[in-house]
């Protein structure tokens, strides 16, 4: 019963196209309830439903909306062009410094990684420790390469 009522309720809410037709509750010989849009048998009763509320779509304005950037409110703080250029130059310098550090780190990791065959350390008597360090170096190498790529992309976006 609850499932059928929930279905009826969902049908009314989700499918407003069919909400204008009559709904009948029919009970068959076994006592099963069924909702139909026709009441062709004597065991069907019309279900009184509240009227459907519909809203028209908003009308489109005749003038096309401009694609320009919205103007800032008059009390919005402004930055002087020379101050903004200084900030941009500072940002570029910070990104270049960070890129140099990451490139140095990448070269160091590549040298230690040695194309997947790093030299074994004296503390790595157990081969599993060596494999663990090799896997860590590989992860660090991949992460550092991604960092270098991201920094280069960011610098290219500034130009």
From TrEMBL:
InterPro entries: DUF4124 (IPR025392)
Segments for region (Disordered): 47-99
Sequence ranges assigned to domain DUF4124 in this UniProt record: 13-63
Pfam families: DUF4124
Keyword match rRNA-binding: no
Compositional bias segments (type: Low complexity): 56-70
Transmembrane regions: none
UniProt feature, compositional bias: Basic and acidic residues: 77-99
Record's signal peptide: 1-19
Alphabetized UniProt keyword annotations: Signal
Name of the protein in question: DUF4124 domain-containing protein
Organism: Oxalicibacterium solurbis
């Amino acid at each position: 019963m609850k499932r059928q009522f929930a279905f009826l309720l969902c049908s009314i809410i989700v499918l407003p196209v069919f909400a204008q037709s009559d709904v009948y509750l029919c009970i068959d010989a076994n006592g099963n309830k069924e909702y139909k849009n026709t009441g062709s048998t004597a065991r069907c009763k019309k279900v009184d439903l509240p009227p459907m509320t519909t809203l028209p779509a908003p009308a489109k304005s005749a003038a096309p909306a401009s694609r320009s950037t919205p103007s800032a409110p008059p009390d919005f703080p402004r930055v002087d062009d020379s101050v903004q250029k200084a900030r941009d130059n500072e940002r570029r310098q910070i990104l270049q410094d960070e890129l140099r550090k990451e490139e140095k780190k990448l070269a160091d990791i590549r040298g230690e990684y040695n194309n997947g065959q790093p030299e074994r350390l004296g503390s790595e008597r157990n081969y599993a420790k060596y494999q663990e360090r090799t896997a860590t170096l590989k992860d660090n190498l991949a992460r550092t390469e991604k960092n270098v790529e991201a920094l280069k992309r960011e610098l290219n976006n500034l130009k």
